[in-house]
Amino acid sequence: MEVFPGVFQLKVPIPNNPLGHLNSYLIRGDKGCLLIDAGWNTEDAFQALHGQLESLGLGFRDIAVVIVTHVHPDHYGLAGRIKQISPTRFAFHIWEKALIESRYVHFSELQRKIGHFLRRHGVPVDIADPLEKASLPALDFVTVAWPDEVLYGGENFAFGEFEFEVLWTPGHSPGHVCLYEPTKKILFSGDHVLPTITPNVSYHLQSGSNPLGDFINSLHQVQRLPVSLILPAHEDIFTDLAARVDEIIHHHEDRKQRILEALDRGPKTAYSIAKQLTWNVPGNKLLRLEALQQRFAVMETLSHLELLRMEGQVERASHDGVWWYGLCSPR
Ligand SMILES: [Zn+2]
Ligand SMILES: [Zn+2]
């Protein structure tokens, strides 16, 4: 479907996931096409992409460049397979490149440390074990490939009729990028800004010390851009970026307040706070979520707690190897 003159949206199915599909975007240039995000590497996804390319009179060999907004499996997984069968060049942010080896190649060390991290934040031993292993099935859907070029943010490049600016927008992932076309007033927002759901922002071993602070800064970075069309990696294309950014910031402010309320009754671990909150994924309450979603929920609670700690509202103390968070002063 041509969603903007010269921009085609391709829908790539994601298995067993409420999101349903990834939006991949294809732009025709003089020497082949640019693809923004690729999808999981499943046979269904591969065939779906192949079929949609064919309907445009194209094949995988016509993809000259793939830019991956970040290396989550639903954006990056299929890109390696495309590279195996075509002379495609790859580009993504340098911090995303730094994640590949530990996540997708020699992953057992990181996995073990995630288990330790979860127990340290109050997850009971019998629950921490399945949460530690919850990301392993996704490895089957990723074909590892390294970038031919790394992005830093701030680059400008021309492709066909388009003049892009690379925006580094960390938060959902440390090296997430958006692509901005100032003349045409369009923004390819990846998972950074989605029209109705909020992307997971987790504090974890590879997130940096304040991922939610990074995310809010990255939202402010794009909020006032003069854009008339936002092309996200999931859900539908939308138009009012400033209003959507306000909603997302409000959502996180509200969540911070709920966490402070939970701490009014005394210090808690991230795990026990995550159990009190309501989560906008199937199940809603922590113990009814799927294992990977439980892990995201605990780590997202932590991203709020660590932001509150940076702001001087919350402090943490270690007792018997477990971190407890409490209010710095009674409210
Ligand atoms: Zn993502
Ligand atoms: Zn995604």
Structural notes for this entry:
The longest helix has 24 residues, at 241-264. The protein has 10 helices and 14 strands. It has a domain at 2-102 and 138-248: Metallo-beta-lactamase, Chain A. With 331 residues, it is α/β, with parallel strands linked by helices. The model has no long low-confidence stretch (mean pLDDT 96). The chain has helices at residues 43-55, 73-76, 79-85, 94-105, 108-120, 125-133, 211-223, 241-264, 270-276, 291-310; strands at residues 2-4, 7-13, 21-29, 32-36, 63-67, 89-93, 149-151, 156-159, 162-168, 177-181, 186-190, 229-232, 314-319, 322-327. β8 and β9 (162-168) form a beta hairpin. It has a 7-stranded mixed beta sheet. A 5-stranded mixed beta sheet has the order 8-9-10-11-12, with no helix packed on it. Strands 13-14 form a two-stranded antiparallel sheet. α5 runs antiparallel to α6 (125-133), α7 runs antiparallel to α8 and α9 packs across α10 (291-310). The structure holds zinc ion (ZN) (2 copies).
Q: Into which percent range does the helicity of residues fall?
A: 25-40%
> What ranges have pLDDT less than 50 throughout 5 or more consecutive residues?
none
Spell out which ligands are present: zinc ion
Q: Indicate the proportion of strand residues.
A: 15-25%
Q: Tell me the structural class.
A: alpha/beta
Mean pLDDT, nearest integer?
96
CATH architecture of one domain: 4-Layer Sandwich
Helix and strand sequence: EEEEHEHHEHHHEEEEEHEHHHEE
Query: What's the story with the biggest beta sheet?
Result: 7 strands, mixed
